[in-house]
Amino acid sequence: MSHQRRRGRLACLPLALAIGIALGQPARAETSPEVKIEQGRTQPVYSYADAIREHVYVESSVDGDGDGRRDRVRVDVIRPKESGPALRVPVIIDESPYYDNSGRGNEAERKLYDEAGDVARFPLYYDNYFVPRGYAVLNVDMLGTTRSDGCPDTGGRSDVLGGKAVIDWLNGRAKAFREDGTPALASWTNGKAAMIGKSYDGTLANAVAATGVEGLKTIVPISAISSWYRYQRMNGVVYGYDYMSWLADYVDTDPPAKCAAVRAAMDAQDGDATGDYNPFWKDRDYLAGSLASVRNVRASVFAVHTVNDMNVKPDQFSTWWQALAKRGVPRKVWVGQYHHVDPFDFRRDVWVDTLHRWFDHWLYGVQNGIMREPRADVQTGPDTWITQSDWPAPDSADVSLYPGADGSLGLRPERRGLQAGFTDIRQPEDAMVADVGTQKPGRAAFVTGELPVDLRLSGTPKVDLKLKLDKPTSNLTALLVDYGAGIRVDWRVGQGISTLAEESCHGESAGLDDGCYRKTVTNTANRPLEVVARGWLDVQNRNSLSDPSPLKPGAWANVRWDTLPQDYVFKKGHRLGLVLAGTDADFSQEAATGAVVTVDLSRSSVSVPLVVPRTLTTPDLSKRDTWRGPPRVNLPVPAPRLH
Predict the structure, then answer these.
(1) pLDDT of residue 617
(2) Cα dist. 361→194, 300, 357, 444, 507 in Å?
(3) Does 175 lie in the same domain as 311?
(4) Under 8 Å CB-to-CB from 562, ≥6 apart: which residues?
(5) What is d(CA 195, CA 204) in angstroms, rounded to the nearest whole number?
(6) Are residues 467 and 321 part of one domain?
(7) Residue 641 has what pLDDT?
(8) Residues of the domain holding 267
(9) What is the 3 state secondary structure string of 510-534?
């Protein structure tokens, strides 16, 4: 297997060595530079221009394309030229299915190859920044994509075990081969590895960590999936039909016929007709699945997620985070307010430095204090970040708010016998939340009076309803709404950012590969309202995701479910609203059932985790006026973005 070595600039000879050569005396052999640490950070002492670029094929344990041979994973490597048996370096891995389709990062970079077949441009800045600091960086083609063998199976066996094989190879437990078929040994690494990536890439990091593979020391999942079931549905409500096979086809740039049978099997097994949880989804559940489980995680975790990510919704990180906490996994988290955006594109300088210290600590053992700092960084406004000891806010408490027959929402339950009702129709959220004080047949809406103080929501609201239907089931939507004008992160447009022409550079450059990327700014908007939290339920899945129980028409039932988590500040003078409706046309492909839903108000509430000022313990929040709220407001639904 060939690899490319770039020549660096001629370094000036030290004076004593120059004199020695001039006098004809034997010079001492040149020594490799050692890793240099200053101010708790590794320093760029290795030449990026001279770095070794090579590729190998790691043999996995799966045969996803059914050709009778174990699939091989393409691994593109860039590492300091000094790395080898005498200098073993740790590894940063970005495994991705996107290297030859949508590309990576805000600028959609793809791999570019030289004549020898090695990568001449590695996407993103990880190589430019970390290789000079003594790291190897691996860009791994997920099985079934780019130059790897096999078929993608969207979160399943190939996805999970392909990445695991790379960690095994780095630690001498799996075979790899060069282009000419000769064995390839990873004699240049100490076996300590990190996995990082956004979206699907971060999902692969979660999956591999949940196998418990030895040698994976830390992961940095950004906007990553922990359960593919929850990625495509909530409590039986389906977000998109046949999505899993569609995504497998999207990332696979081979001729369609090659993996058609795999995609057909996915469509037959995904249970779209019911929305239920079944063995197909258990294979793709990294919290408690059949292939991977959080109980196996031995790597530390630095998670990043944004609470308005309506692609990889924030319950993906909140449930993962809670499960990690229960196991005492060392962890850190950033919680932002954007849509599907990498922290490199909303808090760049702080992010790169924090990531640098994280990797130095976990892969080089640098005692730089990062694990003694507050565990959570949380964005509370367009330009405002706070730190706290954990997430959700440790001082938040669940506050029960009760809907009233007069459309109020307050701290006291309604009298017995009072009801509200609506019909399950399919409608967008901007219709659900408009004219909140006006009765409408497709929703029931409740709102507080003006808030006496700022109230911060931090965590996961929970809906608790006593209801009956005139049909066996209904789709339900619950929305928590902030009624009041204010400057907010406009996550609905451009994912929440705009890209500028000016660049900033993080790392060294050589040839086609530079570490410079266009800067971004946060988009903001001043709208009269915003949907803060949302949650969905198919009533027949109220007790079980895998064993539906239709409701007897006319029979009362208790229905409880979580909304998506949030971290948000309701400003003083704003109003907090609760809207109950049927099928959400913005975020679901479900057809409405047409069921009439009757809610017993005296036995219904929503529990909201609030950082509660002491002044809130006495006043009621119930609306005492005839306020009706703004008319229908345009609430753009963010364009889908996979990567």
Answers:
(1) 57
(2) 12, 11, 6, 52, 19
(3) yes
(4) 315, 460, 461, 462, 463, 535
(5) 8
(6) no
(7) 75
(8) 37-388
(9) ECCECCEEEEEEECEEEEEEEEEEE
- Indicate which residue of 340, 356, 361, 643 is catalytic: 340
202 lies in the same domain as 239: yes
> Is residue 19 domain-resident?
no
Written as one letter, the residue type at 95 is E
Q: For residues 545 and 230, give the distance between their C-alpha atoms in angstroms, rounded to a whole number.
A: 11
The CATH number given to whatever domain includes residue 482 is 2.60.120.260
Q: Using alpha carbons only, what angle is made at residue 212 by residues 209 and 215, rounded to the nearest 5 degrees?
A: 80
Look up the CATH number of the domain holding residue 81: 3.40.50.1820
Termini Cα distance of the chain: 31
Residues 355 and 447 placed together within one structural domain of the fold:
no
* Residue range 224-269, pLDDT digits in tens: 999 999 999 999 999 999 999 999 999 999 999 999 999 999 999 9
pLDDT of residue 16: 30
Cβ count within 10 A of residue 325: 13
Counting as low any pLDDT under 50, the low residues of the chain are 1-29
Choice among 83, 96, 158, 199 that is catalytic: 199
Q: Which residues are CB-neighbours of 600 under 8 A, at least 6 positions away? A: 419, 465, 466, 467, 556
Catalytic residue among 76, 94, 283, 309: 309
The answer as to whether 450 is a domain residue is: yes
Residue 622 pLDDT? 78
Residue 339 annotated among the catalytic residues of the structure: no
506 within domain boundaries: no
- Give 584-601 as a DSSP string: ETTT--PPP---EEEEEG
- The number of folded domains in the chain is 2
SS3 call for 256: helix
pTM of the predicted model as reported, rounded to 2 decimal places: 0.93
pLDDT attached to residue 613: 77
**Contact indicator for 202, 216 with CB cutoff of 8 Å:** no
Q: Specify whether 352 is located in the same domain as 437.
A: no
Cite the DSSP H helix spans in 114-270: 126-130, 157-170, 200-209, 228-232, 243-251, 260-269
Place of tokens 């306020």: 627
Of 333, 356, 388, the position where a domain reaches its end is: 388
Q: What does the pLDDT read at residue 27? A: 37
Helix 260-269 to helix 243-251 angle, to the nearest 10 degrees? Answer: 160
Q: Are residues 327 and 421 in the same domain?
A: no
pLDDT digits 0-9 by tens, 457-510: 999 999 999 999 999 999 999 999 999 999 999 999 999 999 999 999 999 999
CA distances to 28, 484, 492, 633 from 525, in Å: 65, 12, 9, 13
- Judge whether 471 and 553 are in contact, CB under 8 Å: yes
Say whether both 243 and 112 belong to one domain: yes
> Is residue 84 classed as helix, strand or coil in its secondary structure?
strand
- For residue 31, what pLDDT is reported? 62
Q: Is 96 a catalytic residue?
A: no
Domain boundary among the residues 335, 363, 388 is at 388
Q: Are 226 and 310 members of one domain? A: yes
Q: Please give the C-alpha separations between residue 148 and each of 139, 140, 322, in angstroms, as whole numbers.
A: 12, 9, 34
CB-based contact 539:469 (threshold 8 Å)? yes
Query: One-letter amino acid identity for 103?
Result: G
- Residue 9 included in any domain: no
pLDDT of residue 91: 98
The total of other beta-carbon atoms located within 10 Å of residue 53's CB is 24
Res 615: pLDDT = 64
pLDDT at 642: 75
Q: Is 309 a catalytic residue?
A: yes
